[in-house]
């Protein structure tokens, strides 16, 4: 039986994508507060404690959808609470997006361009970062691709079922990250621009599409009813007051800002840098070159609608940053936007005549080398700081910290305290000790020191210093993003009650054995 050449090439690309996303696994699994919270909440759901709200956003009263928790809960149960299970799931999910990339590029151009698009997606440093990003926005790569696949089918194949995928992808994207509601704007733009290519949508298809959207956002609808339109009220209130992150305190978290006119070019340059060229000085010239190519190709009537579609797709990724003035804009707001760039570059490379193949070969080598360099430099340490602000919270190092405390305690009761982010929250270490520590050593420590209520975690809390066990351990998490004054005041307070008898550092995490005096 003759094997299709396209299938062989796609399979090779699929394997390459898997290799790059599982490179350094499991030592680069990041496990901070968000991951511990997700672990607690998802397993509660898996045990029957259902919820209609997901993780909180930076806007009080506004929440992401809970779908991510419903998906990873059963995986946590199957893996015995081990974060490795959900991490594997997220990395594989990112690779599965290759099928959607291939389909979209095939509709817009041809199979040759589709395979090249898949190759660029497979080696993309940005996509490897989304693959190892261990929380809900990571799955938005799939949902955003479903959204734009629906658009490609509807606008360029006149396939009415595309409307179903469009609205389903929109709803799922909002589930995984509420900020992705901005996809409504490119949807409206495409409907206006490509309305002539649309045939009448049958009532049945329209109803199915509406039903798919309603189902995908049903948790938001239920939450609005249950909590008396809390989300709508929060959005209205946000229009009348400055937006600050939940629990923001300038004495704890560093805060700086940029103007939008500076952050927008930064965002677009980052998409080029993290997908095509790891040479900062050449990012701007390359971006200008690609814009010139786009402008020239727009003169071709047959290509114009497809290139406009890709441009809308790419430009829409900047919309969430209109009010973002931070010096390090959040990485995942533009999730999925760069795939349009990869498809465009793939089209350019596959359009070069065979006699100039050396040009496309050199370009591919440069793109491959740039991405592999970024992968090898960054991925061993986990996610970027613009993805997970508190870098260095790696599961492999955290388990060593837990082991250290038990081994030093030698079976005796002991207390732990942590310089944590968020401040005075035990969620991360509560999960680690409950899942890993208790299973291995048979008992749990108590949490000693200040304690913020209202967060997941089940460690017994003892705030009275005189009642703490003799063995006390202070865990100093990675301090990246924390204000120096907060760090010094926390250590100063601890030194007032205890003294260090031993200390050990695991990666960016320090653990001190202390005693009262």
Summarize the structure.
With 517 residues, this protein is α/β, with parallel strands linked by helices.
Spell out the key features of this protein.
517 residues; alpha/beta; 7% strand; 2 domains
Tell me the layout of helices and strands.
Blueprint: H1 5-22, H2 33-46, H3 67-78, H4 84-108, H5 111-123, H6 125-132, H7 140-156, H8 162-176, H9 184-193, H10 203-216, H11 218-226, H12 230-238, H13 260-273, H14 280-297, H15 304-316, H16 338-351, H17 357-378, H18 395-409, E1 414-419, H19 427-441, E2 446-448, E3 461-462, E4 471-476, H20 484-497, E5 498-506, E6 509-516
Parallel strand pairs: 1-2, 1-4, 2-3
Antiparallel strand pairs: 4-6, 5-6
Helix pairs in contact: 1-4, 1-5, 1-6, 2-3, 2-19, 4-5, 4-6, 4-7, 5-16, 7-8, 8-10, 9-15, 15-16, 18-19
What does this structure look like?
- By secondary structure, the protein is of the alpha/beta class.
- It is 56% helix and 7% strand.
- It has a 6-stranded mixed sheet, sandwiched between helices.
- Helix 1 (5-22) runs parallel beside helix 5 and helix 4 packs parallel to helix 7 (140-156).
- The relative contact order is 0.11.
- Mean pLDDT is 90; it is low at 242-259.
State the helical fraction.
55-70%
Mean of pLDDT:
90
Outline? globular
Main beta sheet strand tally, sense and closure: 6 strands, mixed
Rg over CA atoms, rounded to whole Å, is 25 Å
The count of helical stretches stands at 20
Low-confidence stretches: 242-259
